[in-house]
Design goal:
Length: about 300
């Protein structure tokens, strides 16, 4: 009996709502934390068998990116997601997918609608991202024009069907906000890769909401040891480049030499990587600075 049998029973077919009309739900699982441990022991031998050792082994695998034991676990989901979000999701090629066909069936009569307080400005620092919320009165106007467009495009679609246009052609002007549904099956290693990228603050809010629902509400309870290791070594960990390490070493030496504990931005600029010197803007330097602020080394 898998160690997560009770959680699987509780979660199977339970629709977890996402956005205004979407959901994710667990359909099937093959494996639990133990399945990862069992696969790893083929390579590491029987040596350690206690529960506390299972946790240590999983953490070791995650730390050292020994990922094949995680591929022994398979999970199948059903999701309902707007097509623009699905377009980002489907870029993850390591899953098996079967999607609702709008050639065989009428397109799902639902589109993701944006509430007046949910419209976001274009980010100024990141060309791909969003910034602050737009003012409420403008938001209300945008939501009203969105509703008008959705109604018009659906009416046109249905009119084409009534007139005998093939479903595969009638659908061409439906908006990207139209919901689609798909079965999505993936192994645990590639699912964690998806979650690391799509739960991240750099991912678009909408796909982030789906990834967070999958991760926090399904993966976390089903694989508590794997999830803990994933959070510690991937999701909330930090990557240090050779350049970052050089900056940290020089900054630590500078502070020690001057008997100080906190560095200023002038100190940081003084010990920056030589390849960044003279550049008014440098993304790598900005990211290094952010890491030092997170450490508390830089104010
Ligand atoms: C914040 C963000 C912004 C993005 N912006 C853009 C963008 O502007 N434009 C754009 O086109 N995409 C963009 N993407 C998509 C991104 O480039 C990847 O296509 C997507 O994240 C899938 O990642 P993946 O290939 O690692 O995942 P998967 O397809 O699940 O693959 C997992 C891993 O398997 C291996 N793999 C799979 N297939 C192959 C293959 N054919 N050859 C070699 N190795 C393979 C790779 O190691 C890969 O990392 C963005 C993604 C994110 C998260």
């Amino acid at each position: 009996m898998p160690t997560n049998a009770a959680q699987v029973d509780e979660l199977r077919w339970k629709k977890i709502p996402v956005l205004d009309d979407g959901f994710v739900c667990l359909v099937d699982v093959m494996g639990d934390d133990q399945a990862v441990v069992q696969a790893a022991r083929v390579s590491y031998g029987e040596g350690t068998k206690k529960v506390s050792d299972d946790r240590g082994l999983i953490r070791y695998l995650m730390r050292h990116r020994h990922t094949t034991p995680l591929e022994m676990v398979e999970i199948k989901f059903l999701c309902r997601v707007p097509m623009d979000t699905w377009r980002q999701w489907i870029r993850h090629r390591t899953a098996n997918v079967n999607e609702y066909s709008t050639r065989y069936s009428l397109a799902i009569d639902a589109a993701q609608r944006t509430a007046p307080n949910e419209w976001r400005t274009q980010a100024t620092t990141n060309r791909q991202g969003s910034g602050d919320p737009l003012p409420a009165d403008l938001g209300a106007e945008l939501s009203a024009s969105e509703a008008e467009l959705l109604e018009k495009s659906r009416a046109l679609y249905e009119k084409r069907i009534e007139l005998g246009v093939a479903r595969e052609q009638a659908r061409k002007d439906l908006p990207l906000s139209t919901y689609t549904e798909a079965y999505w099956k993936i192994d645990l290693h590639n699912l964690l890769h998806f979650l690391a990228l799509r739960m991240d603050a750099h991912a678009q809010l909408e796909v982030r909401e789906y990834a967070t629902a999958l991760g926090e509400q399904i993966v976390r309870p089903l694989f508590p040891l794997v999830w803990e290791a994933f959070v510690d070594y991937r999701r909330e960990s930090m990557f240090l480049s050779r350049l970052d390490i050089g900056v940290i070493s020089r900054l630590t030496a500078l502070l020690a030499e001057q008997g100080r504990t906190a560095a200023t931005d002038d100190d940081f600029m003084a010990v920056q990587d030589p390849t960044w010197v003279g550049m008014a803007r440098n993304r790598e330097r900005d990211e290094c600075r952010e890491k030092l602020v997170t450490f508390g080394m830089l104010k």
